[in-house]
Design a protein that fits this description.
CATH class: Alpha Beta
Order of helices and strands: HEHEEEHHHEHEEEHEHEHEEEHEH
Largest sheet: 8 strands, parallel, barrel
Helix content: 25-40%
CATH topology: TIM Barrel
Structural class: alpha/beta
CATH superfamily: Aldolase class I
Number of domains: 1
Mean pLDDT: 92
Shape: globular
CATH architecture: Alpha-Beta Barrel
Distance between the termini: 50 Å
Number of strands: 14
Bound molecules: phosphoenolpyruvate, cobalt (II) ion
Length: 412
């Protein structure tokens, strides 16, 4: 079947990642932990896009840099699991591994892997991407269009006011530019979204890995930006061997267990030619461990003469389970890891060039905290994730504001 993206787009993203690694851009990567087949719905796709767009606007304004927008979507269907089995009331079943592999229901039938689901994942990815591309070309792409700015989901007054001020000053600037150039500035860069997902299920990834007569090398054309998950980042393992042969930019999840020497081995295998934009290190230590883990890795990359893009995932090291057994994350811990990442990079004469978040445009209650102070008791109100807890639209936008506030407080 046809690929979902083109080598030209993939190359363009790699150049932008190279620019982010040089401090000329900032990478915003976000979306669901696990996409779901039954959530391939127009409002879910457009609300998620809207949140990413609004966050990017805040970041562009506050960081004074263009933002590269990358979604965790159109293929984020396979999940690595820490536990191979799930127990409920004394019954043990294989874990749910994402819609591309099995089903989440707690029934032996549901948990049987079904390869036909890869075809369904491909179709849903294609439909999702088609809708995203159409939105990018249509209403969402026009800076004058109200869809772009609509803040329907934010009920918190301070957040709404702060966002409105930014919107007003951007619209002022656009009107000024249009007055000066006596016409609409319609040819501004189209609102571009790139796609990313974890390259976990190799049969699916390989089926969409193609040669192209006009581009040397093999491209994974199921996505622009595949990443290697923390549990499959073994330099000797199949996932690294697969990614090594690709021409795409590659992300690597970097957790507390990855030593500086192992990281050096890994980057040597994955980027022997030191191609600008090739590697993004997505660090996910948790607020308690980032201070001991991050600086030695930055130092090891520097000693190796490596220029990579450093991206902070403040979600996956901060997952906890409440007393009543609900998986959650605290907004304050997510933010604290993010802020520490900025500080540690600066103290190490390095720079944080991106953020990686699990988020949705829906008004879910999966992470506690944030401006509206979601409590543990609120988690049951709208918890729909089958895997990891996501920031809701309001918390995600608040995270973008927190990032620019943090940058403002930092000595330049
Ligand atoms: C994820 O990004 O959903 C994930 C499982 O991350 P990690 O590999 O970092 O645990
Ligand atoms: Co996750």
């Amino acid at each position: 079947m046809p690929p979902l993206v083109t080598p030209w787009e993939v190359d363009r993203l790699r150049l932008r990642i190279a620019q982010a690694a040089s401090g000329e851009r900032f990478l915003l990567q976000g979306g669901d932990c696990a996409e779901r087949f039954d959530e391939c719905l127009p409002h879910i796709i457009s609300n998620r896009l809207k949140v990413l767009l609004q966050m990017s606007l805040v970041l562009i304004y506050g960081l004074r840099r263009p933002v590269v927008r990358v979604g965790r979507f159109a293929g984020q269907y396979a999940k690595p699991r820490s536990e191979p089995l799930e127990a409920r009331n004394g019954t043990l079943l294989p874990s749910f591994r994402g819609d591309i592999i099995n089903r989440p229901g707690f029934d032996p039938e549901d948990r049987i892997p079904d390869p036909e689901r890869m075809i369904e994942a491909y179709s849903r990815s294609a439909v999702t991407l088609n809708h995203i591309r159409a939105l990018g070309e249509g209403g969402f792409a026009d800076l004058h269009h109200p869809e772009y700015w609509n803040l329907g989901f934010v009920r918190h007054d301070d957040l709404r006011r702060e966002y409105q001020q930014i919107v007003d000053s951007i619209l002022d600037a656009i009107r000024f530019m249009e007055a000066v150039s006596s016409g609409p500035i319609g040819d501004m860069e189209r609102v571009a979204f790139f796609t990313s997902h974890e390259a976990l299920l190799l049969p699916y990834e390989e089926a969409l890995t193609r040669d192209d007569p006009h581009h040397p090398g093999a491209y994974n054309l199921s996505t622009h930006f595949p990443w290697i998950g923390m549990r499959t980042a073994d330099p000797e393992g199949a996932h690294v061997e697969y990614a090594r042969g690709l021409s795409n930019p590659i992300g690597i999840k970097v957790g507390p267990e990855l030593s500086p020497s192992l990281l050096r081995d890994l980057v040597k295998i994955l980027d022997p030619d030191r191609l600008p934009g090739r590697l993004t290190l997505i660090t996910r230590f948790g607020v308690d461990r980032i201070e001991s883990c991050l600086a030695p890795l930055i130092e090891s990359m520097r000693a190796d003469g490596r220029k990579v893009l450093w991206n902070c995932d403040p979600m996956h090291g901060n997952t906890e389970t409440t007393r009543s057994g609900v998986k959650t994350r605290r907004f304050e811990n997510i933010l604290a890891e993010m802020e520490l990442a900025f500080d540690i990079h600066q103290a190490s004469q390095s720079a944080l060039g991106g953020v990686h978040l699990e988020l949705t445009g829906e008004n879910v209650t999966e992470c506690t905290g944030g401006a509206r102070g979601l409590q543990e008791d609120d988690l049951g109100k709208a918890y729909t994730s089958q895997v990891d807890p996501r920031l809701n639209g309001e918390q995600a936008l608040e995270m973008a504001f927190s990032i620019i506030r943090k940058k403002r407080r930092m000595p330049s």
